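Let us work through a complete example step by step.
Step 1: write down the sequence.
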Amino acid sequence: MASEIRVNSLTNRSGLSTVTIADTGAVVAGMITATTFSGPLTGAVTGNVTGNLTGNVTGNSDTASNLTGSPSITVTDITTTGNVSVGGTLTYEDVTNIDAVGIITAQSDVLIGGNLSVTSGISTFKSLDYAAIDSTISDTAVDVFIYDTSKDSDGGAWRKRTQNTSWYNETLGTATRGTRREFPAVAVIVAETTKVTIYDGDDPDLPMWMVFTWSDASVDNLLGYNDRAKSAITAVNGYLITCSDPDGIHIARFIHDDGIRYTHVNHVYTSNSIANRTNTTYRTINTTSLLVASTCNDIAATVLPNAPIDDTTGLPVPTIAVATDGGVSVIKDDGSVVDITSAGGGNYNQSKAITITEENYLWWLGDYFSGSTYLRDSYAVSLDNFPSSDFTWSNSTDNLSDGTFYALTTNGEAGEIKIGPGNTWAWNHQERNALGGPAGLAIHKPNIGSENNSIIAAITSDYNTGWMHGDIKGAFLSDTDTTNVTGSELITNTDFASDLSGWTNGNPSQFTRVTTNVGGDTDGKLMYYAVDNNLRTFTQYVTCVAGERYVLSLRACSDTANAIKIDIDGTDVITIDDNNNAAFLTKQHTFTAGSTSVRIRIESAAANRSYFTDFSVRLAVEDRSVNDKGLQVFGTVTKSAVATGAELVAYSGFSGSNYLEQPYNTDLNFGTGDFSCISWVKHPNTFASNQHSHIISKINPEASGQFTIQYNTDSTLYLRSGATSYTNIGPLSTNTWQQIAFVRRSGVLYGYKDGNFIGSSNFSADISNNESLRVGIRNSGYIGSWTGSLALLRISGSAPSPEQIKKIYEDEKVLFQENAKATLYGSSDAVTALAFDDDTNLLHVGTSSGRSDLQGLRRINNNTTAVTTAITAQNEFIIEQ
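Step 2: predict the structure and record it as tokens.
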């Protein structure tokens, strides 16, 4: 028989620092009070245990009544038919199973390491393992929200102080009220068009806890009228907040047991209880604390650090931001309302989505109207230094006079988040630091204080750009298709060397072939110009693959404005403006072939001299930046996964006849200003005929104003311009992916490898020239090709900070691991919903193909169920529709 330790009266011995039970047995008839209590504790527990308990606890169905710990209990396993009540933290470590028939009550954390089975329910806790919840709700939602009360200012303790409220004491088990009185520790809130339902997230079956419904359009209800569609929902510190079209916002205050409403015409209050939520009488508080418009599209709420304390609740008062069709209204924690509107007025004020970034900036999407098209700008204001009165935003300036406002922006344009290809994406969804729309996902990391130097990454179902910095000029080698690319010239007679063969023209005699130099051209090629006052055209059909991307380029000059236009299948894509025949301009355009036969047409305007030559149409390796200026493919370039099972693709197989080239691009004339080049490289430590190995090059790097990134046989890796080499960051590891970065900042060239600073040197040379950019080779007559692989090449007209370089490396390195997923799951790019889980730092992205779960830039998980409307997530607990 096991020995028994009897503790009859330790009540007055609370000064004990340690009680050690070295044997098995039971604790009976009394209370142990100790700073530390070490087990195992096995057998019947008939009294209370107060203190820190570490070990195994096994109760007896006949005698186990209460196991009470304060301030904390840490156990390996627990089995009891009684109650577990903990004043501090209850932690289950290395648990395989936890069974309790009674009630678990904890005033702090409940940290679950295994299975939890509680028959009678779970009382107050700070955090809970949601893994057991797997349920389906049959609602048709316009928005969903997981309200984890542990994130309220008091950790959700307010739930224990509401026994006097009407809703706590209303009749249970009805169509609008569940069977549990206490507000759920985790509430799943579903907003339908004319109904809001709160589900009990503490129960794995998610039973209905409360319904807000509308009985009649003429009757005022706590959350609005039944003919006013809900559009968004959120909750914080006992406030349940909904917004409507066109009925402003409604707030059900569970601790106050009342409701308030803000519209564009009044701010009203009801003393009617939440139990009487279907027939409410409001009285006017004032007509000054108003929203800027009646139609509300989205809401966001937070509690600021120095918020005033509500005398009734003892909790800080939330700040609530509302996106409306007339701008943004912010209901401050002092009760005042500040309206933010566009300086342009009218249609420019449409605000469709709003969120709060991790930097505590209020960030919203503001539409502006241009012709028949709405374009979406992106603006933000600091909540930590928020203005006290109404103010305006502007599409043309970055900052207000008070210095609190900035536009989250890249590419140097105020207010615009722009990524490729070639336009501003139509953003529909916004969450934390992410935007989603029909064309894909963008993740943005603002650079506070230098917003034009922020970073942004674009992710779709078939590419991931990595982080693009500031004034991005090109983002290449970022796709996931392992098919090798082979490019050849598709234009017949590219320079009209002797005749018009390959081109169709109604009256060739109206053009004169020029053999002398024009506009500074010295290459001896032949050009034409119109000799009468009629519009003249050249036309050629090129054979393409429908759906593939191609780069068209040419050189031209003219003596008349808009003298030369190039159209593709009837759409103008290039215009050569009047440059008085001073110099030839190189122009390019990347396009998607709409069919297997694409018409290229040159239009030469009347009564002008139009000179053109060097036409080219080649298969493109795409530029995923907003510039959309792709690389032309020469020969065959090999594409393969960067690692076994990884999605991201590497480019290799470069040689004098196999390389990538971007026609001359004035964007790469950086002058003496800042610029940067970041790429991932893998080198096999072999060289072609003992020659240098070039990653990128502006054709002839010995010439003034040009440059190359070059790896030498002596394992030095540097940027070279003219006859001078700058900032050696070699050597490279053999057959290992490494990130390299060259950054010119204020006349100094800094070199980084794998996010770490390696060296620097003074470099103020003027980087401006009229040459093309080549990737993987110096030039076609030079055998110093890159003998390794390349991926995620980006060039910017701006200089990332050392902190940004480190973040770019850390976030991208995981894309080069085995089986790394870099894209949105499935074949759809259109983002239908976004949710950020700040417990796990995961971004959940919904498309018609399913939900993609992203950790930084990498997809770590997905499902295959289409997301049509909304996602919400807390601590790995995900609700979606």
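Step 3: interpret the result. The chain has five domains: 18-118, 133-309+321-327, 486-621, 634-816, 833-880.
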